[in-house]
Amino acid sequence: MKLGFVSAILPELTLNELLAFAAAEGFHCVEVMCWPPGKAERRFAGVTHVDVLNFTQAQADDLNALCSQHGVSFSGLGYYPNPLDPNPAVARAAVEHLKRVIRAASLLGVRQVNTFVGRDWTRTVDENWPRFLKTWKPLVAFAEDHNVRIGIENCPMLFTRDEWPGGKNLATTPVIWRRMFSDIPSDHFGLNYDPSHLVLQRMDPIRPLNEFKDKLFHVHAKDMQVEADKLNEVGIFAFPKQWHTPRIPGFGEINWAQFMAKLYEIGYHGPVCIEVEDDTFGRALEGRKRAVQVAGQILRPFFA
Q1: Of 237, 251, 257, 259, which is least packed with CB atoms within 10 Å of its CB?
Q2: Contact, 18 vs 30, CB < 8 A?
Q3: Residues with Cβ within 8 Å of residue 244, at least 6 apart in sequence
Q4: What is the pLDDT tens value at each position of the chain, 304 positions in all?
């Protein structure tokens, strides 16, 4: 396994600065964000450390040389939109850019792209399913043609009234993963597994690892704290933003020794990338860098 972090937390840094920081702090890899350049639609989105628009083999060669210079690899390319948005234009733009990310990953020799399945949050899972299949069967085939794996993050994308009632990502629970991988069986279609999203749903974040070990393509290391006092005030049916706080690993509810032990037990050999959405250290650049550093110190003992 390789320890890395997700580049979304450091949007001010150039790619060269990002890789230099990763190398200086002893990280082996970085998941680099590949959003279309422009205004972010939400926090932690809209970050472009690799611009895949009109991406060429020459650009890929230059980026690979930069990685070699710093001794830090790309764990994967990240882009997290809503390919099933009820607005057809928004969904179409997401799918087309996702294809660009997959092409860029192929040119780079990076076999991993991480994203969301998406969802029309006003409809049930069953009502979303025909559109999911229509959208994702061709996308998975496209990834197969480019020898790239797609890792779906299991974030519910359900935090405020903007995502109510269903959230903006279907792939949130084991029962849905089984259906998803049964209906689109492919060695190129799996999970970018984030245990914190199961904690948010009051589920065991370790229990699914055995069953889905062959679908674990990439892992996000993020923790979660459900604030009991707030939950007791507003209840589980209130918007989750009212009763939970994202934390860096070690600052929340996950037992990281048990989680990492299970990854070793099931033979996971992929990246484990720290994702920071925790404001404990402040929102300034130096504070966010410190969050990555501290999280790295907490997890590093689990890596050879």
Answers
A1: 237
A2: yes
A3: 200, 224, 225, 226, 227
A4: 999 999 999 999 999 999 999 999 999 999 999 999 987 777 788 899 999 999 999 999 999 999 999 999 999 999 999 999 999 999 999 999 999 999 999 999 999 999 999 999 999 999 999 999 999 999 999 999 999 999 999 999 999 889 999 999 999 999 999 999 999 999 999 999 999 999 999 999 999 999 999 999 999 999 999 999 999 999 999 999 999 999 999 999 999 999 999 999 999 999 999 999 999 999 999 999 999 999 999 999 999 8
List 225's β-bridge partners, or say none: 245
- Looking at domain 2-302, what is its CATH homologous superfamily? Divalent-metal-dependent TIM barrel enzymes (3.20.20.150)
Regarding beta strands 244-247 and 223-226, do their DSSP bridges make them parallel or antiparallel, or are they unpaired?
antiparallel
pTM: 0.96
